[in-house]
C-alpha cells in the first residue's frame, strides 16, 4: 500500500537520510536539511507498506512554488511513485491558491524530464552550461506548470 504524508518534524530526519542516499551530485546536504525546516517549505514523502521510499520538496513564495528535489529509492522506481507525488503537490497547489510551479532539471535526466512532461509541465527556457557533473557541463531545462483559470 502506498501512502503520502507531509514532511514534518517526525519524519524530516528520515527524509534527509533518504535524500543523502539518492542524491548523486554532492549538493550541500546541510542546505537541504535547513531548507526543509523553513516555514515556506512544502514537502511530501511517500511510504510503501510503511517504509519511506520517496519525497518531493518545494519552496513556496506568494502564489508560486519551486520544486527543489524529488527522489525515489532505486528499488521502487518505475512504479508510478514519483507521478503520485508530483500529482499530490499539484493538488495541494490547486487547493491552496498556488497558481504557478517551476523547476530546473539537467538536460540529460531523461527520467525526470519524462516525469515532468507526463505531469503537465511545459519547457519554458534553457540555462546553458548550468550543471557541472562528473567533469561535464550540461544545460538546465526550466519547466513550469500553471493552474488553469
Ligand atoms: C526521476 C525519478 C524521481 C522518477 O521516479 P519514478 O517513481 O521511477 O517515476 P514514475 O514511475 O512515477 O514514472 C512516471 C513517468 O516518468 C517517466 N520516467 C520515469 N522513469 C523513467 C526512466 N528511467 N526513463 C524514461 N522515463 C521515465 C515516464 O514517463 C513515467 O511514466 P510511465 O511509467 O507511464 O512511462 C527517479 O528516477 C529518481 O529518483 N531519480 C533520481 C533523482 C532525480 O533525478 N530527481 C530529479 C531531480 S530534477
Q: How many structural units, i.e. domains? A: 1
Radius of gyration, rounded? Answer: 15 Å
CATH fold title: Aminopeptidase
The backbone outline, from C-alpha atoms, is: globular
Q: How many β-strands, per DSSP? A: 7
Write up what this structure looks like.
The structure is a single chain. This protein is of the alpha+beta class and 149 residues long. It has one domain (2-146): Gcn5-related N-acetyltransferase (GNAT) (Aminopeptidase), CATH 3.40.630. The chain is 29% helix and 42% strand. It contains four helices and seven strands. It has helices at residues 12-22, 29-36, 81-95, 110-118, and strands spanning 2-6, 41-48, 51-61, 64-72, 100-106, 122-133, 136-146. It has a seven-stranded mixed sheet with strand order 1-2-3-4-5-7-6, sandwiched between helices. The longest helix is centred in the middle third of the chain and has 15 residues, at 81-95. It is globular and about 40 Å long. It starts with a strand and ends with a strand. The model has no long low-confidence stretch (mean pLDDT 94). It binds coenzyme A. Residues 22, 70-72, 77-83, 105, 109-112, 114-115, 118 line the site of coenzyme A. Coenzyme A (COA) binds at residues 22, 70-72, 77-83, 105, 109-112, 114-115, 118.
Amino acid at each position: 500500500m502506498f501512502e503520502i504524508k507531509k514532511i514534518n518534524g517526525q519524519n524530516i530526519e528520515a527524509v534527509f537520510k533518504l535524500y543523502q542516499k539518492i542524491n548523486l551530485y554532492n549538493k550541500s546536504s546541510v542546505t537541504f536539511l535547513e531548507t526543509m525546516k523553513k516555514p515556506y517549505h512544502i514537502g511530501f514523502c511517500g511510504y510503501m507498506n510503511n517504509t519511506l521510499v520517496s519525497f518531493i520538496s518545494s519552496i513556496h513564495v506568494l502564489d508560486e512554488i519551486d520544486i527543489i528535489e524529488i527522489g525515489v529509492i532505486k528499488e521502487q522506481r518505475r512504479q508510478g511513485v514519483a507521478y503520485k507525488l508530483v500529482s499530490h503537490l499539484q493538488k495541494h497547489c490547486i487547493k491552496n491558491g498556488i497558481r504557478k510551479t517551476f523547476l530546473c532539471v539537467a538536460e540529460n535526466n531523461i527520467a525526470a524530464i519524462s516525469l515532468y512532461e507526463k505531469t503537465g509541465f511545459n519547457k519554458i527556457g534553457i540555462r546553458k552550461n548550468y550543471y557541472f557533473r562528473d567533469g561535464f557541463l550540461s544545460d538546465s531545462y526550466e519547466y513550469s506548470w500553471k493552474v488553469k483559470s
